[in-house]
Write a structure and sequence with these properties.
The structure is a homodimer. Chain A is α/β, with parallel strands linked by helices. Chain A has eleven helices and 14 strands. In chain A, strands 3-2-1-4-5-6-14 form a seven-stranded parallel sheet, sandwiched between helices. A four-stranded mixed sheet of chain A has the order 8-9-10-11. The first copy, chain A, has a three-stranded antiparallel sheet with strand order 7-12-13, with helices on both faces. The longest helix of chain A has 21 residues, at 274-294.
């Protein structure tokens, strides 16, 4: 089997996770990392990996089979994905759910002779696959997605923007009684507040007003006002000791019926490293993008379009024999 | 959208489950049930459904889009599946894991101008999908499949064949400490006995020897000897009250690592009716068989080959917008 030559564009947390996954895949070679930062400022997991300015990517069109796009969904990907998809097979983890159709159309228009798998993180990603699979099997039912326990970067950032806050981390925590209600076959009507709570750990600047900060967090619209939020003030030492990892996880549950019988399906993730897991999913889908492009299956694809056997290092016959 | 016309061949528990699922699907019509029994002996869920001798199926080639093959895996399907696949798009839930490649080859040879989706129950089925997906995402790990709590028909039948046994039901029960060990990120070396135990409820004939029956069960090779087995003797009244349902379920867990970080994935089912759930999965895959045959994707296919969007009543764009 030919080695799949991978490029990584964007070397933040997800890019590092992808580099780790690609480096340990026996059927892949990590060809280069592309960055907008100074290449010499980047410390890779392995000294033999080239780090190049992102402008150099186009010149490596024939040396890279799949480019993993590890930039952010807010501004990087909408700009970068069509550009890269015009030259490379790509995989990204674009996660702005509301804008996926628009994003997909733009990528699809560019992916004329390439395969571009979009939104292949874990939500969107396997969580979306489960929502679709579960609903298709048991149409009479209700699907629930719970996130956590885990760090939400967006919410942590929002706290850090408050005056007087030095460091902060926000954990999204599913509410166990709600999970149990669904798991036991119920179809409760759950508001955001009923499904998840938000626990915040905050390090403040000397002399900052704790009460004011706590109120600013708890009343912040969209981010915290609709949830039960707890705020704990801690010192830098405790922060560095207990709150620098990036765990996450969550569940997709469907509670439904066939006739009078209850049928419950559940998928859950318990991740010590969210970005490494995301990078691992993108790496599996890189294999799919490579194989699909070889078959001429061009254009923008999603996790709902890709047969599972394409993700594996094993060939289809082996998978059917060993895992079916 | 055109209605998908469904036939069901074989009207045991799974056939009845499939009939229920098809009858409630807005995009399907249950055209006929085919049986080897006397058609007039069959009570369908709805009087308008034709029940015909199985030999009549060939004459309805143009009136049925997908035939759901609901016979048994031991003898019915190996004979029936190639026969039906030569005329109809088919879906079956063939579950003899060791013989799948051979079975698939026979069906594939027959499905020249049809789409034949094989082994689309829940294991093989979604359980296989999870084993493949999980391993592809986290190659450094171990996958565990647990079955239960639920009724195993094969084990219940084995008990009923013992002299002096009037009725019996066997529940396969996963061992919680083993599940927890995997769930917490361990990779224990689990023998069959460590993963599941077998609880048997037995009604005996008047005067039968309880000790002898209990020993016969516990020492039965393959079925019980390799497990911790409990035997409870109950009367007919209790049997009819508490042990006539067909619940089942189980879990696929993968415990693995990306670098030093533990990553745990889990899929679980908690089913009040095993045959209705199996029939529901086959019904979702009937939609896939129909759509794939329209696209000329002929031959034998498995759940690892079918993109998820084909299973849904919703079109691809709607799924991407609503569920991705």
């Amino acid at each position: 089997m030919q080695t799949i030559r991978i490029g990584i564009a964007g070397y933040g947390n997800v890019g590092k996770g992808a580099a780790l996954a690609v480096s340990t895949a026996p059927d892949m070679e990590l060809k280069a990392i592309f960055t907008r930062r100074k290449p010499e400022s980047i410390k890779t997991i392995n000294d033999s990996i080239s780090v190049l300015p992102i402008e150099k990517a186009a010149s490596m069109k024939n040396e890279i089979d799949v480019m993993l796009l590890c930039g952010g969904s807010a501004t990087d990907l909408p700009e970068q994905a069509p550009y890269f998809a015009s030259m490379f097979n790509t995989v990204d983890s674009y996660d702005n759910h509301a804008k996926i159709p628009e994003y997909m159309a733009a990528v699809d228009a560019a992916a004329v002779k390439t395969t571009a798998i979009i939104s292949a993180g874990w939500d969107p990603g396997p969580f979306s696959m489960m929502r679709s699979l579960f609903e298709s099997i048991i149409p009479d039912g209700a699907t629930y997605t719970f996130w956590g326990k885990g760090v939400s970067q967006g919410h942590s950032d929002a706290i850090r923007r408050i005056d007087g806050v030095k460091h902060a981390v926000q954990y999204t925590v599913p509410i166990d009684s709600a999970v149990q209600a669904v798991r036991s076959g119920g179809r409760p009507d759950l508001k955001a507040r009923d499904k998840m709570k938000r626990d915040c750990y905050v390090v403040i600047e000397n002399g900052a007003d704790k009460n004011l900060i706590e109120e600013s967090i708890k009343n912040m619209p969209h981010y915290f006002a609709d949830y039960d939020t707890s705020v704990s003030f801690i010192d830098m030492e405790e922060f560095n000791k207990n709150h620098t990892e990036m765990p996450h996880g969550g569940m997709v549950l469907r509670s439904g019926n066939t006739g009078k019988n209850k049928q419950v399906m559940e998928f859950s993730l318990n991740l010590e490293s969210n970005p490494e897991f995301t990078g691992s999913i993108m790496t599996a889908y890189a294999r799919a993008a490579y194989k699909m492009s070889k078959e001429g299956l061009y254009g923008a694809k999603t996790v709902l379009d890709v047969p599972l056997h394409y993700l594996s290092e094993k060939d289809r016959a082996t998978l059917i024999k060993e895992l079916l």
